[in-house]
Each structure stands twice: as C-alpha cells, then as structure tokens.
Amino acid sequence: MTILNASNLSLEEVHRLFGFQKQFNNSFSNLLSLEPLTETEQQELQQIYEDFDRYLTTGKVSEGQVKFLVVAPLLRLAGFYHYPIEIRLEENIADIEVEDEDILIKGRFDILAINKAKYTKNSAYFWVLIIESKNSQVDISTGFPQLLTYAYKGIDNQKSVWGLTTNGRNYQFFYIEQGNPPIYHLLPSLNLMEPPRAIELLQVLKAICKL
Hints:
By secondary structure, the protein is an alpha/beta fold. Helix content is 32%, strand content 28%. The longest helix has 18 residues, at 39-56.
C-alpha cells in the first residue's frame, strides 16, 4: 500500500482520488446570514489589521505568526472561543484509505473548530470550520489540497463543513458538501487589508460560528 501525506497532494490528485467537483458561489448571503458589526467589533478588527500590517512591513510573516497575530484574534472576536465551540490544533486526521488505488492518506489538521453540543450520525462532535494557514508570502491556493482532503474525511459523518485557507492577508472560504460526487463551493476571496472585505470576513466567521 502506498502511503501519502495530504500536504504533498496536488489539487488535481485530490480531484481524482476523491471525485470532488468545484462550483463557484458569488455571494456568502446564499449560504449564511451576515449581521452588521458593532462599533466595538470594528475597532477590534482595525487593531488586528494594524498589528498584522506592522509585521508585514518588516517582510515575511511566518505561519506561526499568522496564526497568533491574525487567525486566533479573528476567531476570538467571531465567538469561536465560547462554548459549545472548541478549537483543536495540530491533530492527526483519521487515515483515509482509497481502496481502488491501494493508497492510504495521512495528515494533520492545522486548526479545527468543533461544536461539542452538536453531534454527527456517528456520535462524533460536529465539525464547524477547518482552517489551513500559510505564511504571508505563500499563495493561499497551496492550502487547497490539504483542506479538501481533511474536509473529505469530515463529510463522512456530516452533510457539509466549512473550510478556510489563509496567509493572514488573503482568505478563501470553501463550503464542502457530501454527495456523489462531493462538491466544494468556492466563495469570493476576502482581504484583511481592504476595510470593506475585512468587515465581510468577520461577518462570515461570526455567521459560521453560529451555525
């Protein structure tokens, strides 16, 4: 049996191994109910932007710094630190076996948010959001294969899951649905450094947290 690491897969390989079909969705409002931000939320969002921008001006921001400076504060502001949501970091995924090709895929989540009050059909905690982060100089598309691989395991137990890839500056959301074939929806790309898009970014995270 061939053992592969999810981090080494290409998007083409992910499409072939799991049968994913891609669809474009031009509006978050088709899937989520976005609410206006409070003045306090907008001020905190501005602070996250300013903190990150200061690091960007010095050059490359590492993946760890992206998580600490941007992803973690955004998740806190969006409500992901409150029960019943729980954040899990750097956990191994359950092995994915592709029987027809005698392939076993292993990997490790970057960030996974679960809902401890909501269960899947197999009595596992419901996956709310999978996040794959990269350093500030890496194109976020490099995280697509890993994210979709992890999401594929998630939709074994539930009908859909949200995914996000980010390098701190750019944010690409996915809505992944169980099916034959499984489908992933690409939503409009958002940018923390553009105020209207940054506001929408926090609105989307808040809406996903409340699902």
